[in-house]
Protein backbone atom coordinates (compact mmCIF):
# COMPACT_ATOMS: atom_id res chain seq x y z
CA UNK A 1 0.00 0.00 0.00
CA UNK A 2 1.27 3.44 -0.89
CA UNK A 3 1.83 5.98 1.92
CA UNK A 4 0.22 9.38 1.58
CA UNK A 5 2.45 12.33 2.33
CA UNK A 6 1.70 15.26 4.64
CA UNK A 7 1.10 17.46 1.59
CA UNK A 8 -1.95 15.39 0.67
CA UNK A 9 -3.50 15.94 4.10
CA UNK A 10 -2.78 19.68 3.99
CA UNK A 11 -4.48 19.97 0.59
CA UNK A 12 -7.43 17.88 1.81
CA UNK A 13 -7.76 20.01 4.94
CA UNK A 14 -7.71 23.22 2.90
CA UNK A 15 -10.39 21.90 0.56
CA UNK A 16 -12.61 20.91 3.46
CA UNK A 17 -12.17 24.25 5.21
CA UNK A 18 -12.91 26.23 2.06
CA UNK A 19 -16.37 24.64 1.87
CA UNK A 20 -17.08 25.52 5.51
CA UNK A 21 -16.63 29.24 5.19
CA UNK A 22 -19.82 31.24 5.52
CA UNK A 23 -20.80 33.55 2.67
CA UNK A 24 -20.44 37.27 3.20
CA UNK A 25 -23.56 38.69 4.78
CA UNK A 26 -25.43 41.20 2.64
CA UNK A 27 -24.89 44.75 3.73
CA UNK A 28 -26.82 47.97 3.66
CA UNK A 29 -25.30 51.00 1.90
CA UNK A 30 -22.93 53.35 3.65
CA UNK A 31 -24.33 56.44 5.35
CA UNK A 32 -24.71 59.42 2.98
CA UNK A 33 -22.32 62.33 3.55
CA UNK A 34 -22.23 65.96 2.51
CA UNK A 35 -25.86 66.73 3.32
CA UNK A 36 -26.74 70.38 2.80
CA UNK A 37 -30.00 72.35 2.83
CA UNK A 38 -30.38 75.81 1.29
CA UNK A 39 -33.50 77.94 1.34
CA UNK A 40 -34.47 80.67 -1.10
CA UNK A 41 -37.39 82.93 -1.94
CA UNK A 42 -39.15 81.97 -5.17
CA UNK A 43 -39.55 84.68 -7.80
CA UNK A 44 -43.31 84.09 -8.01
CA UNK A 45 -43.71 84.19 -4.22
CA UNK A 46 -43.21 81.60 -1.56
CA UNK A 47 -40.05 79.83 -0.47
CA UNK A 48 -38.16 76.71 -1.46
CA UNK A 49 -35.51 74.46 0.06
CA UNK A 50 -32.91 72.58 -1.97
CA UNK A 51 -31.45 69.53 -0.21
CA UNK A 52 -28.48 67.61 -1.62
CA UNK A 53 -25.89 65.03 -0.56
CA UNK A 54 -23.15 62.86 -2.00
CA UNK A 55 -24.36 59.83 -3.97
CA UNK A 56 -23.75 56.46 -2.31
CA UNK A 57 -22.34 53.60 -4.40
CA UNK A 58 -24.84 50.72 -4.55
CA UNK A 59 -27.81 52.77 -3.34
CA UNK A 60 -30.99 52.26 -5.36
CA UNK A 61 -32.87 55.10 -3.67
CA UNK A 62 -32.78 57.47 -0.71
CA UNK A 63 -35.17 58.30 2.11
CA UNK A 64 -35.28 61.98 3.02
CA UNK A 65 -36.38 62.78 6.58
CA UNK A 66 -37.44 65.90 8.46
CA UNK A 67 -38.02 66.32 12.18
CA UNK A 68 -41.51 66.47 13.60
CA UNK A 69 -42.71 69.98 14.34
CA UNK A 70 -39.24 71.52 13.87
CA UNK A 71 -37.91 69.90 17.04
CA UNK A 72 -34.24 69.19 17.62
CA UNK A 73 -33.36 66.01 15.70
CA UNK A 74 -32.95 62.71 17.53
CA UNK A 75 -32.94 59.15 16.25
CA UNK A 76 -36.62 58.78 17.15
CA UNK A 77 -38.30 61.97 15.98
CA UNK A 78 -37.58 62.00 12.24
CA UNK A 79 -40.39 61.28 9.83
CA UNK A 80 -40.01 60.26 6.20
CA UNK A 81 -40.75 62.94 3.64
CA UNK A 82 -39.84 61.24 0.38
CA UNK A 83 -38.30 58.19 -1.17
CA UNK A 84 -36.31 59.47 -4.15
CA UNK A 85 -33.84 58.06 -6.66
CA UNK A 86 -31.38 60.95 -6.94
CA UNK A 87 -29.17 62.57 -4.28
CA UNK A 88 -31.07 65.86 -4.25
CA UNK A 89 -34.56 67.24 -3.79
CA UNK A 90 -36.26 70.62 -3.95
CA UNK A 91 -39.17 71.38 -1.65
CA UNK A 92 -41.55 74.21 -2.55
CA UNK A 93 -44.43 75.81 -0.67
CA UNK A 94 -42.56 75.60 2.61
CA UNK A 95 -43.43 77.92 5.51
CA UNK A 96 -41.73 81.32 5.60
CA UNK A 97 -39.42 82.04 8.55
CA UNK A 98 -39.29 78.42 9.63
CA UNK A 99 -36.25 76.30 10.49
CA UNK A 100 -36.20 72.89 8.80
CA UNK A 101 -33.84 70.06 9.77
CA UNK A 102 -33.13 67.11 7.48
CA UNK A 103 -31.37 63.75 7.44
CA UNK A 104 -31.10 61.14 4.69
CA UNK A 105 -30.48 57.40 4.43
CA UNK A 106 -29.40 55.36 1.41
CA UNK A 107 -31.42 52.27 0.48
CA UNK A 108 -30.55 49.03 -1.32
CA UNK A 109 -32.11 45.55 -1.43
CA UNK A 110 -30.67 44.82 2.04
CA UNK A 111 -32.28 47.83 3.73
CA UNK A 112 -31.51 51.42 4.75
CA UNK A 113 -28.22 52.87 5.90
CA UNK A 114 -27.98 54.71 9.19
CA UNK A 115 -29.21 58.32 9.05
CA UNK A 116 -26.78 60.96 7.88
CA UNK A 117 -25.73 63.94 9.91
CA UNK A 118 -28.32 66.70 10.14
CA UNK A 119 -28.53 69.75 7.85
CA UNK A 120 -30.77 72.67 8.66
CA UNK A 121 -31.93 75.86 7.01
CA UNK A 122 -34.31 78.66 7.85
CA UNK A 123 -36.59 79.96 5.11
CA UNK A 124 -36.54 83.71 4.36
Number of strands: 8
CATH architecture: Sandwich
- Report the order of strands and helices: HEEEEEEEE
Largest sheet: 5 strands, antiparallel
Name of the CATH first level: Mainly Beta
Question: How large is the share of residues in beta strands?
Answer: 35-45%
CATH topology: Immunoglobulin-like
Shape category: elongated
| Number of domain units | 1
Mean pLDDT: 82
Rounded radius of gyration (Å): 25 Å
Residue windows where pLDDT falls under 50 for at least 5 positions: none
Number of helical segments with 4 or more residues: 1
Q: Find the CATH superfamily.
A: Immunoglobulins
Q: Helix/strand/pairing class, anyone?
A: mainly beta
Secondary structure layout:
Layout: H1 6-20, E1 36-41, E2 47-52, E3 61-67, E4 78-84, E5 88-94, E6 99-108, E7 111-112, E8 119-122
Antiparallel strand pairs: 1-2, 2-5, 3-4, 3-6, 6-7, 6-8
Molecular structure report:
- This protein is mostly beta strands.
- It has a single domain, classed as Immunoglobulins (Immunoglobulin-like, Sandwich), CATH 2.60.40.
- Helix content is 12%, strand content 40%.
- The protein has one helix at 6-20; strands spanning 36-41, 47-52, 61-67, 78-84, 88-94, 99-108, 111-112, 119-122.
- Strands 3, 4, 6, 7 and 8 form a 5-stranded antiparallel β-sheet that branches. Strands 1-2-5 form a 3-stranded antiparallel β-sheet, with no helix packed on it.
- Strand 1 (36-41) and strand 2 form a beta hairpin.
- It is elongated and about 90 Å long.
- The termini are far apart.
Write a compact overview of the structure shown.
The protein has one helix and eight strands, in the order H-E-E-E-E-E-E-E-E. The protein has one helix spanning about 5-20; strands at about 35-40, 45-50, 60-65, 80-85, 90-95, 100-110, 110, 120.
